[in-house]
Design brief:
three-stranded parallel beta sheet, alpha/beta, Rossmann fold, globular, 44% helix
Length: 372
């Protein structure tokens, strides 16, 4: 295997197994290492300890990670998962003229929705976050619309579209889980970060509809700010089953046994113009399970090719009716599942994403060498 340069990868988001950030970060890191890059991953380790839920402790750990990076071996390129708190190291690397790649998965709207108090300091967070995009050598975005947004913002054509993807070996129709029990079936599944913009409230309310099949369960797996809300619903409604995040292998097995997978959002997330292509949608399709998606940019395309069905994301009645339709038509579900898996295998595997990222980093290294 040909050896390439070194890369320091910084991620301040929580990376629990079963959530999108875990898959994205570790799959890209693995793919780059497979291609000969020496990758060092830096991230805070606060997420399993209750003490670290404190805002001040988190900010301290954010800073500590950046100090560790500065005192570690210098890399040829630095790769950031865009976060406002990476401003200090981004500023320093900008002064030192060290190239940084910023990976963006959304806009600042996600921050404001997940943590409403940040709206009071909106201008402050905008400066911390957006300055980093101006300084970045290149930007990797998970939707074409985010590429356009970043290029328009920075007034430079420096963005590359690299879609969210799935590990189609792990997520497959024959995947097994030690947590699976026959008594759980039948169920539809939602998994990942339990944030406000995921439309969790609409999904939960759908189980109260008369259109929801009386024997069909809703399995929710994940963590986040909506966790208490989900727990409360599960106590009142026996059709709702709630688990905290579980290992990827077990998650894949649970997805494979589902009637359908949910990948919706709420319109208040303000992703109408920047697109929305959640990683879970591709993992559901890779499992050969039909998806129920929001009728938004990028997601509706998956429904149009026959991999699932699109809903508005606002109506619990509409969602319940759609779920009932799929549950009542297993032959349609089977057809949708096959279309979805084929789509992933041809276009949305992490190996494809890693190859695009590898080529981008190689171009940066080559450009630096030429200038030198």
């Amino acid at each position: 295997m040909k050896k390439h340069g070194s890369l320091n990868y910084l991620c301040l988001q929580v990376t629990r197994e079963g959530q999108a950030s875990f898959s994205h970060v570790h799959e890209i890191v693995s793919g780059l290492r497979k291609r000969g890059w020496h990758v060092r991953l830096f991230q805070p380790e606060y997420y399993d300890k209750a003490l670290y839920t404190s805002l001040f402790i988190r900010f301290f750990l954010f800073l500590l990670v950046q100090i560790k990076v500065l005192f570690s071996r210098k890399a040829d390129v630095y790769y950031f998962r865009w976060h406002f708190a990476l401003f200090p190291i981004a500023f320093l690397l900008h002064l030192l003229k060290i190239p940084v790649i910023q990976e963006i998965n959304g806009t600042l709207a996600d921050l404001y929705i997940s943590y409403p108090w940040t709206m009071k300091l909106k201008c402050f967070f905008r400066v911390l976050a957006l300055k980093q995009l101006f300084w970045a050598k290149k930007i990797v975005a998970v939707t074409p619309q985010l590429c356009t947004w970043a290029n328009r913002l920075t007034k430079e054509k420096k963005s590359l579209f690299v879609s969210n993807c799935a590990n189609a070996v792990l997520f497959n129709p024959n995947a097994k889980s030690n947590l699976f029990k026959e008594s759980l079936q039948p169920y539809v599944i939602f998994f990942g970060s339990l944030t406000l913009w995921q439309g969790i409230d609409v999904i939960l309310e759908a189980t109260n509809s008369k259109k929801w099949p009386s024997e069909l369960k809703l399995l929710i797996i994940g963590n986040g700010v909506m966790e208490k809300t989900v727990e409360d619903y599960a106590k009142r409604n026996p059709l709702i089953i709630f688990w905290n995040s579980i290992p990827q292998k077990d998650l894949a097995g649970m997805v494979a046994k589902a009637v359908a997978g949910l990948s919706s959002k709420h319109d208040s997330s303000k992703r109408i113009t920047t697109g929305y292509a959640p990683l879970k949608a591709f993992e559901i399709m890779a499992s050969q399970v039909p998806i129920i998606v929001s009728d938004t940019l990028n997601l509706r395309k998956l429904a149009k090719v026959g991999a699932g069905m699109a809903v508005s994301g606002q109506s619990s009645e509409e969602l319940a009716e759609t779920i009932n339709y799929l549950y009542s038509n297993p032959e349609i579900c089977e057809k949708m599942g096959k279309i979805g898996r084929k789509l992933v295998l041809n276009n949305f595997t992490w190996d494809i994403a890693a190859e695009k990222t590898h080529k981008l980093i190689s171009e940066i290294i080559k450009e630096i060498s030429t200038i030198s």
